[in-house]
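Exercise 7b. Backbone tokens:
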């Protein structure tokens, strides 16, 4: 399918704590955004890459414009938009700039800058085979429990009480790029634009909006190298991946 990739890079990077947008933070001497962008182009699946940048960020915009000049004939169209207050707002801004004639769209976190090419291919292959929605996943290594704030005498002992244990074999950690038939993702985000603040805050990926429409979401194998650079520890791991045998 004619495929656009939305690259969301408009976050502020609070947890990384560099005092600059996360996409601008250097990894192996180059901004995280550039690694993500090169990865998408190298995968060779995109007719268009639409990047949501922090509003008013000039330096990243300039780097993207320079990168555009490096693209050879037949490479993807590069589009830049201002992102929004939430990740979903950034996706919606980028969706509005997706070219006519596009059939499928992948939504990818700039923070997953080291995503291996085969992951892009697995997602696109599932779309080509007829999936309306597809996400890359990996098994969960930790046991996952639900908790609630403690009340009454229990609160004197600990702040939270365990309410259940999820069966680990059924759990998957979800990554990006998440792939969708364009019309399906547009419909899902239109529905979500009417959410109140509490509902909007609960939206952590695009697939969950599609799930709310009742559309089946397929899962393909992701990769541990696709880690989302979120904390300083993640950045150390990403630096190691670049230098090590996996880089
Ligand atoms: N993102 C975005 N627009 C936002 C918020 C997030 O485009 N308003 C993007 C980020 O740039 C990132 C991806 O969504 O590539 C995943 O978000 P996250 O890892 O949470 O990044 P930040 O929001 O920047 O980090 P933090 O939550 O620590 O501030
Ligand atoms: Mg965030």
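Sequence design result:
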């Amino acid at each position: 399918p004619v495929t656009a990739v939305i690259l969301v890079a408009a976050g502020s990077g609070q947890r990384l704590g560099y005092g600059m947008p996360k996409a601008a933070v250097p990894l192996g001497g180059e901004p995280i955004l550039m690694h993500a962008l090169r990865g998408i182009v190298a995968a060779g699946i995109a007719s268009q890459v639409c990047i949501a940048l922090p509003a008013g960020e000039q330096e990243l915009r300039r780097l993207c414009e320079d990168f555009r000049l490096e693209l050879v004939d037949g490479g993807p169209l590069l589009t830049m938009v201002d992102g929004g207050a939430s990740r979903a707002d950034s996706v919606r801004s980028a969706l509005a700039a997706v070219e006519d004639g596009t059939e499928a769209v992948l939504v990818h976190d700039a923070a997953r800058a080291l995503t291996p090419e085969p992951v892009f291919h697995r997602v696109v292959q599932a779309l080509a085979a007829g999936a309306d929605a597809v996400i890359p996943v990996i098994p969960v290594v930790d046991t996952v429990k639900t908790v609630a704030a403690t009340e009454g005498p229990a609160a004197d002992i600990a702040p939270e009480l365990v309410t259940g244990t999820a069966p680990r074999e059924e759990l998957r950690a979800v990554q990006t790029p998440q792939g969708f038939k364009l019309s399906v993702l547009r419909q899902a985000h239109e529905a979500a634009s009417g959410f109140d603040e509490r509902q909007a805050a609960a939206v952590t990926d695009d697939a969950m909006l599609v799930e709310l429409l009742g559309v089946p979401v397929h899962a393909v194998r992701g990769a541990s190298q696709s880690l989302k650079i979120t904390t300083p520890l993640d950045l150390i791991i990403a630096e190691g991946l670049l230098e090590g045998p996996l880089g």
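Instructor comment: The longest strand covers residues 133-139. The pocket of magnesium ion (ligand 2) is lined by residues 11 (CB under 6 Å).
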